[in-house]
């Protein structure tokens, strides 16, 4: 039954991807990309990778869709006609696909118990993680403790992406553009948004501080909280949103989250441990692990929140300035 579900979802992914290739309406392409992300999330759920599915749904189908729509506001809905032949791109795709398929030929069978990952890495985490980290959610143990260096790099990449986008687009001034934005004529949508936004923020807090015990963590919580403010901006207007969460405050938050993460590593270093060795943060190593993971997940959450919302502010402000002109 699991294999049948995987085949159906993969078939739907293939159909969606093929449809995207031939569409000229970029708005429809963005919608299909959102559908593609939802299908990917379902596949991850079927593979028991709920944390990855959570991230794919929040980032791929949520924030990415909004940002691509913001890009369309700057570029246009229809793909421009081009005169070049499609043979060269097709050849590149065929060669790349063939190389990828060739690279999978010597891979071990999917899910086989004798695979190296199941013989070395997985048993180590399964057997030692409850004693060393003490968290029910083993994914959080791996990402936030065993693999903390890599996760710090991912957080820095999100921060760098925000810097790059805002360097090109800039940030809006709070209420700086007095235009009639938002969906003021849609009364039902505004009422529903007032009900949904507080619950979304509450859910983001739950995901943030419950990631030790279930699917969630700083990445997912930051995106969900940013989505709540983005919904507020879309419904009530960008000027009001920039008064609620000011752009300058986002700049501080984005840098602060990375500093909190790296500062936790420096603190453990000065307490006699290795960088990002949480064991020295308390007399009991397991308690130290809990403290370190909570702190660095909080840093991840505020950096992701600030970066995602800041990027949206940049696109939205640029789109509004374009519409005025």
From TrEMBL:
Native source species: Thalassotalea litorea
Protein's UniProt name: DUF4040 domain-containing protein
Keyword NADP among UniProt keywords: no
Sequence ranges assigned to domain MrpA C-terminal/MbhE in this UniProt record: 115-175
Transmembrane segments: 6-22, 29-47, 53-74, 86-105, 156-175, 187-207, 219-240, 252-271, 291-316
InterPro entries according to UniProt: CPA3_antiporter_subunitB (IPR050622), MnhB (IPR007182), MrpA_C/MbhD (IPR025383), MrpA_C/MbhE (IPR046806), Nuo/plastoQ_OxRdtase_6_NuoJ (IPR042106)
Keyword terms: Cell membrane, Membrane, Transmembrane, Transmembrane helix
Keyword Membrane annotated: yes
Family, per entry: Belongs to the CPA3 antiporters (TC 2.A.63) subunit B family.
MrpA C-terminal/MbhD domain location: 12-76
Protein localization: Cell membrane
Membrane topology, as annotated: Multi-pass membrane protein
Domain annotation Na+/H+ antiporter MnhB subunit-related protein: ranges: 188-309
Annotated PANTHER family: NA(+)/H(+) ANTIPORTER SUBUNIT B, NA(+)_H(+) ANTIPORTER SUBUNIT B
Any one Gene Ontology cellular component term annotated for this protein: plasma membrane
């Amino acid at each position: 039954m699991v294999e049948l579900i995987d085949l159906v979802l993969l078939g739907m992914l293939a159909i969606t991807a093929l449809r995207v290739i031939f569409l000229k309406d970029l708005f429809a392409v963005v919608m299909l990309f959102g559908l593609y992300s939802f299908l990917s999330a379902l596949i991850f759920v079927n593979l028991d990778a709920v944390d990855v599915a959570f991230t794919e749904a929040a980032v791929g189908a949520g924030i990415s869709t909004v940002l691509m729509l913001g890009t369309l506001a700057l570029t246009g809905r229809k793909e421009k006609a081009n005169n070049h032949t499609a043979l060269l791109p097709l050849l590149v795709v065929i060669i790349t696909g063939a190389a990828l398929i060739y690279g999978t030929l010597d891979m071990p069978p999917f899910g086989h118990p004798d695979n190296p990952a199941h013989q070395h890495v997985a048993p180590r985490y399964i057997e030692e993680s409850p004693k060393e980290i003490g968290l029910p959610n083993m994914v959080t143990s791996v990402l936030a403790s065993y693999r903390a260096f890599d996760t710090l790099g991912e957080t820095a990449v999100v921060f760098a992406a925000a810097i790059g986008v805002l360097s090109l687009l800039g940030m809006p001034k709070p209420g700086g553009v007095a235009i009639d934005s938002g969906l003021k004529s849609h009364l039902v949508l505004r009422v529903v948004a007032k009900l949904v936004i507080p619950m979304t923020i509450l859910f983001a807090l739950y995901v943030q501080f419950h990631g030790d015990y279930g699917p969630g963590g700083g990445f997912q919580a930051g995106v969900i909280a940013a989505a709540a403010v983005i919904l507020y901006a879309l419904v009530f207007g960008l000027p009001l949103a920039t008064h609620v969460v000011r752009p300058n405050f986002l700049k501080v938050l984005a840098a602060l989250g990375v500093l909190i993460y790296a500062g936790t590593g420096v603190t453990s270093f000065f307490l006699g441990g290795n960088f990002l060795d949480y064991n020295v943060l308390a007399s009991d190593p397991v308690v130290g692990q809990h403290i370190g993971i909570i702190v660095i997940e909080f840093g991840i959450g505020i950096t992701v929140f600030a970066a995602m919302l800041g990027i949206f502010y940049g696109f939205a402000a640029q789109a509004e300035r374009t519409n005025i002109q």
